[in-house]
Amino acid sequence: MENNAADASQDMINTELKRGAFKLQNEEYEEAGKIFENLAITHDIPTAWVCLGGIKLHQLDSGKTKVQQAINCFNRAVELNPDSKGQYQETYSNVSLQQIEKFRNYYLETKQHEKKAKRGRFWNAALMGAAIGYGNQRTNSSNSVFRGTAGVAGAAYAIDRMNKNSMQKQEAKNLLPFYQEIIKQLVEGVRSYCSDNLTVYQEFLNKTNQLNLAAFI
Fold it and tell me: Which class for 73: exposed (0-12), middle (13-18), buried (19 or more C-beta within 10 A)?
């Protein structure tokens, strides 16, 4: 009877692991996180802890998770299965590398948006000046009314665009240090967790060198 209960429990665990893996494959990180967190905490399964740690790395941009939380999950997996430490380090390094590249791309794209917003503000300021100048030109009475109306409309449009450009520039300015800090944390996380594994850590260093992270770390 006890064997039947144990078999049923193992079947349930295997089913949940497969369901979590399916969610993870489809990048449904929130749902996958719930599944693996339940398996990790309730059944203390190394694989569940590793998957949960990987999910936490994928959710860094939400601000709800931190690199140390991911490391804690991987450390728990090692405590339960010390023989697989090298495999877990490789997984941790690979997932971290994916996230570093993603946030590096976010940073570069946001930097471009910041420059574009800055240029847009300049040209819209020029447009506003031109619109005001156009509206103030004096001709016959009918043309003066038309020019005045067109000038006001043009200036209003330019001011609206300038305000939007300013908001976009400020949003970009706020995001840049956020992305920069996450990249630093990810690099430090791999150093902390994987540096005693020379094979894994050297491969990580080789790949990050290709990403040219000098501006971020």
Answer: buried
Beta-carbon count within 10 A of 97 CB: 18
- Residues 6 or more apart from 168 whose CB is under 8 A from it? 113, 114, 116, 117, 120
SS (H, E, C) the chain: CHHHHHHHHHHHHHHHHHHHHHHHHCCCHHHHHHHHHHHHHHHCCHHHHHHHHHHHHHCHHHCCCCHHHHHHHHHHHHHHCHHHHHHHHHHHHHHHHHHHHHHHHHHHHHHHHHHHHHHHHHHHHHHHHHHHHHHHCCCCHHHHHHHHHHHHHHHHHHHHHHHHHHHHHHHHHHHHHHHHHHHHHHHHHHHHHHCCCHHHHHHHHHHHHHCCCCCCC
| CB 179, CB 110: distance < 8 Å | yes
- Residues 6+ positions from 207 with CB-CB distance below 8 Å: 97
Over 70: is that where the pLDDT of 147 sits?
A: no
* Percent of residues, the chain, with pLDDT higher than 90: 57
- State if pTM tops 0.85: no
17/51 Cα distance (integer angstroms): 10
